[in-house]
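User: I'm curious whether this sequence folds into something compact or stays loose and floppy. Could you predict its structure so I can see for myself?
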Amino acid sequence: QVQLQESGPGLVKPSQTLSLTCTVSGASITTNNYYWSWIRQPPGKGLEWIGDITYNGNVDYSPSLKSHTSISRDTSKNQFTLQLSSVTPEDTAVYYCARKVGPTHCDYWGQGTQVTVSS
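Assistant: Here's the prediction. I'll summarize afterward.
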């Protein structure tokens, strides 16, 4: 069974870099045709797609977040990582990693991790 687990600090100060790692088990992040996504949900709002890294390492970002987002991977650890720089309190959200099949459908999700941006 595919499992994803987010890890990282729960509290980040404004202007710092938020860094989260997703550890995948039960599937390889290099398997053809799967995308590995970061998605967030701010309090009281809907889900917001942040970006993907594909099975062959290509990345794609939300246009609204592209300027301060970076997604990378470590294939030896079967992990992928999100970095969001220059965060503000508006970046406070529950952050999820997920496996995506096709343009929009995520079939496996992590449990989510709360990240609060506050001084």
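Summary: The chain is about 0% helix and 55% strand. The chain has a mean pLDDT of 96.
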